[in-house]
Amino acid sequence: MSGSVRIYEVSMRDGFQNEPVVIPTEQKLEHLQGLLRAGFRDIEVTAFVRPSWVPPLADAAQVVAALPDAPGVRFWALVPNAVGLNRALDSGLRHVATFLSASEAHNKKNVNRTVTESLSELQQVIAKARAEGVQVRAYLSTVFGCPFEGDVPIERSVVIARALLDAGAQEIALSDTIGSGNPVQVKHVVEAMLAAGIGVEQLAMHLHDTRGTALANAYSAWQEGVRTFDGCIAGIGGCPYAPGAAGNAASEDLVNMFELMGVDTGVNLGAACEVAETVTEVIGKPLPGRYHKYLLAARRRSANRSA
Amino acid sequence: MSGSVRIYEVSMRDGFQNEPVVIPTEQKLEHLQGLLRAGFRDIEVTAFVRPSWVPPLADAAQVVAALPDAPGVRFWALVPNAVGLNRALDSGLRHVATFLSASEAHNKKNVNRTVTESLSELQQVIAKARAEGVQVRAYLSTVFGCPFEGDVPIERSVVIARALLDAGAQEIALSDTIGSGNPVQVKHVVEAMLAAGIGVEQLAMHLHDTRGTALANAYSAWQEGVRTFDGCIAGIGGCPYAPGAAGNAASEDLVNMFELMGVDTGVNLGAACEVAETVTEVIGKPLPGRYHKYLLAARRRSANRSA
Fold first, then answer.
1. Is residue A31, in this structure, part of any structural domain at all?
2. Helix, strand, coil proportions of chain B in percent (round to 5)?
3. B198 touches chain A (CB under 8 A)
């Protein structure tokens, strides 16, 4: 094996929040058990956002209250602001993820604030979380393209990432929010971050597969030394700007690619695909991930042969 | 733009031959018109194989007889052997593609010959084609993995590729037949070919997307200098070893990735997606390609908004 990568699983948050069906808490917890059996060690389980904004995650407190004892596993929740952080702290969680956009128009649409206003608020949120001994990741959205502004200058993303780290964030998830990134651009963005003195171990890639480029982009970032990749079982979640298009990079597809490359993910591919198959039934439609469908097809063929 | 790539379109052969529906000749020719409108310049239009083996391509002679006049476009046909070559020559085609496998078990299953027997036969086929002034490409299957033998030593592929070029083939399409390749392996394979004195302009990549890795593998080959990539509109064709899994790299997804990278493909992405939408209707099921589905979803959203 040539090294390892860390797959940060986001299906329970970024996946479930963007699917039209509201999944009962009980089923979410079964899904979580599947993720744990598969070996995921970083799992974003929900978001402490206003329930009326994101109804599928309205059960955030119940999900966190029911989290199993899982040594070595980090359970994360998304918190948009101080109110969200307080709810997360009350719930007892020790890992939070916050977010803002690199582009003004997307940030305005998303949280109705300028980037500067968001940054100033997040600096306090991050400082408070760190003061409580809580780990903090920060998503930086629209780094690779904005649905409203198009191209986003790399220098903007570098400055904001730097500010988030200075505020105490321990990881920046460079996010291809609409899946418009390409591997050459990924290389340039990561290079620019490193040139600004950001450590490669402080970076994660959050890559949507809207146009099929997520794995190519992941490979490009891996070549630059990035070792943390967000994945979403079966690629659920879709794209809020193009409903019906593919979602995040499928966790099992990332696992397969890295393991084929000789890179350890710590995840059992077969067990991850079992979760993908179950969530396909729960959501009730074919999902974008490739590997779980390949496995199902290969199994059907083999069953037909032996019949 | 930083250079260009050539997209070699295989939907009419590798796509149609692996779909359960037999498409009428007339519809194939309409599909071809769409490919030409989109700007594809290398199009594999059919295969001169035994009709009983591949019923969807039984109309090979009719398709070739009806090819439009298209200056600057190369129309290719697959020929498995001397009989196939003669049929292609009789049809008037000036570009043929032949094939054999890097692994013994796959070659045996595919054409019921050892690799040495196939190579010896193809040497004559290639020599005759070249003597007639016909251009020859050769697919080398299972370079990145065999459905029966698993790993295939790179040295085998290098030796066979060398022999095919020595026989007069002008291009070797390194084929990931079952989509089990990974980008690090692609890098190693291309490096080994170049180290054996093969010119990078003699190489093409034929990458199936069974496990979602086709674009990552294409990017890796591009980094090594390869500039010809096989694509199949909408990713049709599937995988003969796992029916229901994804097919070839979708042409429009390749076009999108390269164009985003600033690499010219000569193909109009919107026009390619129109072909993808039409072929989706013809085949009658959702197809694996990502970009055409994204475009459709984005258009629907925009229509809903203006409604």
1. yes
2. 50, 15, 35
3. no
CB–CB of B144/B173 below 8 Å?
no
> Closest residue of A to B242, CA-based?
A298
Tell me what ipTM this predicted complex has: 0.96
Contact yes or no for B204/B173 (Cβ under 8 A) = yes
Q: Is B268 helix (H, G, I), strand (E, B) or coil?
A: coil
Give the C-alpha separation, B40 to B8, whole Å.
7
Whether residue A232 has pLDDT greater than 70: yes
Interface test with A, best of B1, B188, B232, B257 (most A CBs within 10 A): B257
Domain that holds residue A31: 6-306
Q: Which residues contact A230 (CB under 8 A, 6 or more apart)?
A: A7, A8, A9, A10, A14, A173, A204, A205, A206, A207, A248, A249
Cβ neighbours around A55 below 10 Å, total: 10
- Mutual orientation of helices A214-223 and B214-223 as an angle, nearest 10°? 40
A265 belongs to a structural domain: yes
Choose the closest CB to A183 out of B184, B261, B300: B261
Residue B304 binned pLDDT confidence (cut-offs 50, 70, 90): confident
Question: Which CATH number does the domain housing residue B185 bear?
Answer: 3.20.20.70
**Tens digit of pLDDT for each residue in B91-144?**
999 999 999 999 999 999 999 999 999 999 999 999 999 999 999 999 999 999
CA-to-CA distance for B296 and B277, rounded, in angstroms? 9
**Closest by Cβ to A261, choosing from B182, B296, B298:** B182
In a domain, B171, yes or no: yes
Q: Per the structure block, which two tokens stand in for B88? A: 């292609």
- Of A40, A45, A59, residue with least CA distance to A15: A45
| Interface residue B187 vs chain A (CB under 8 A) | no
Residues 6+ apart with CB under 8 A from A307: none
Q: Count of domains in chain B?
A: 1
Q: Judge whether A1 lies within some domain.
A: no
User: How far is it, in rounded angstroms, from Cα B245 to Cα A180?
Assistant: 25
φ, ψ for residue B17, nearest 5 deg: -65, -20
- Angstroms from A219 CA to nearest CA on chain B: 7
Pick from B233, B172, B181: nearest CA to B211:
B181
Gap between the Cα atoms of B67 and B70, Å rounded: 8
Three-class DSSP category at A3: coil
